[in-house]
Design goal:
Length: 461
């Protein structure tokens, strides 16, 4: 991609940094913005900024944002319901599914069933170029509520939080990051003097990348068809090993999955069944971590996790989002149930996608625990740092892959990957480190930055 083209696309995407799926609108040639971190008085109570008369509307009216409840999933293997009141500047969040332990004392008691409420603020002045973009973005402050075990659960506040969770409200979707957690487990000591079994090293996650839909359906007749699936899974007991891969999957009207891929279906296991929360469950889902060729995880005792499918409705398309929630129960040491693999997958209908078929600017969060922008134009794409407008990784795109709708990707250093698109959303997996790798505050010393996984929503064409 030429320097002039990259610069032009960078200017275009810079009009809406951080905003996932806040479609439409361009500001007039904003310059690079250096984000500032709020602290102390700068994190005080705020009202909604007044949109500029020349700025296109990127999200619902301030008074109407509260009317939307977003059902979605996170890369942590969690299903979340989220509501933001942009007038009262508050939020409520409930974890419907979660493998994330409440404390380091137990791996069996998770955030599932926990509901928190707290305050939100708009990003500090100067973080986003326009008042309209700022109006649609909300940093989540300390959330407090009753956890699943009856204790009080609290997430971090605005102050001294360098990489806070932030939600970007758009038209039909919300995305960004939900509150992260610190994961650690000392393991189980069977006899005095013996080493602990199942210990998990301490790792902090600033936030977990999240995508939620304002409109979903429980009508499974909207699902049948063939899809390309891109998956990203993580296993703490495998030293937080991550695997990103793809599968071609066909679903019938009963929620059964078959696949032409040699690996079979990877996103779900048994037939999907509707639960009472507005999405579908599949038991016995496949495990993809450790990756092919790696030694099997001796701590894993079976496939006890559950795959949850949300049927998002966006721009006339059905976009399945699948979250795999791991499950661990060590209450019976003679027959422990250990399946700590969790992750997320996006599915896109396997329909032909020609060069230019998903051109535009996209923004979202990724496996680096960062917010990023992606510019797609024909056979070229570029990752852009949304706070500086600087080009990061460059990508080459090759259309006409063996399966319709699948796009081959190769970064500037030769690492291969894939991309899919549907309903104004896109996802990519790349078997390399992109954009400087994982944020240092969400990594251990030995945490690899590859593979890479990202989901973004279109904000400009």
């Amino acid at each position: 991609m030429s320097h002039a083209m990259t610069r032009g696309l960078a200017i275009a995407i810079a009009t809406a940094p951080f905003l996932i799926a806040c479609g439409g609108g361009k500001a007039d040639n904003p310059g690079p913005v250096t984000p500032t971190q709020c602290s102390g008085a700068s994190c005080g109570t705020q009202g909604a900024p007044t949109p500029s008369a020349t700025t296109a509307t990127l999200c619902p009216d301030t008074a109407d944002i509260v009317k939307g409840t977003y059902l979605g999933g996170a890369g942590s293997g969690e299903i979340v319901q989220l509501n933001i009141d942009a007038t009262a500047m508050t939020y409520t969040l409930k974890w419907l599914e979660s493998p994330i332990p409440l404390t380091s004392a137990s791996v069996s008691v998770t955030r599932k069933g926990t509901r928190i409420a707290g305050a939100v603020i708009h990003p500090p002045t100067g973080m986003l170029p326009t008042a309209e973009q700022t109006r649609c973005a909300f940093i989540l402050g300390a959330g407090t509520g009753t956890a699943s075990d009856g204790t009080t659960y609290t997430t971090p506040d605005f102050v001294n939080n360098p990489n806070p969770p932030m939600i970007l409200i758009g038209n039909g979707v919300a995305g960004g990051g939900i509150p992260g957690a610190t994961v650690q487990y000392a393991g189980i000591t069977l006899l005095p003097g013996l080493p602990a079994i199942g210990a998990v090293n301490k790792r902090h996650f600033d936030f977990y990348p999240f995508l939620g839909f304002a409109s979903t359906t429980t009508d499974i007749t909207k699902l049948p068809g063939t899809y390309n699936a891109l998956l990203y899974h993580l296993s703490p007991t495998a030293n937080y090993e991550t695997v990103a891969t793809n599968s071609v999957e066909t679903f019938d009207a009963s929620g059964n999955c078959t696949s032409s891929s040699s690996t079979g279906c990877l996103s779900t296991g048994n037939a999907l069944t509707l639960n009472g929360n507005g999405y579908f469950d599949s038991t016995n889902p496949p495990q993809i971590v450790p990756s092919t060729g790696a030694a099997s995880n001796p701590l894993r005792t079976g496939k006890y996790g559950t795959a949850h499918m949300i049927l998002g409705q966006l721009n006339g398309a059905t976009v399945p989002l699948v979250v795999r929630t791991g499950y661990v129960d060590t209450s019976n040491l003679l027959s422990p149930q250990v399946d700590d693999e969790s992750g997320i997958a996006m599915l896109a209908a396997a329909t032909p996608l020609a060069s230019g078929g998903f051109d535009g600017g996209y923004v979202g969060a990724d496996s680096n625990f960062k917010y990023t922008a992606t510019l797609v134009q024909g056979a070229a794409a570029t990752f852009i740092n949304p706070s500086t407008s600087a080009a990061e990784s460059s990508l080459g795109l090759s259309y006409g892959a063996s399966n319709p709708g699948l796009v081959n990707v190769q970064d500037g250093t030769g690492h291969a990957g894939l991309a899919i698109a549907s309903g104004g959303l896109y996802a990519t997996v790349i078997q390399g480190a992109e954009n400087g790798g994982i944020a240092s505050t969400s990594a251990n010393a030995d945490t690899p930055s590859a593979p890479y996984f990202g989901i973004g929503a279109q904000i400009s064409r």
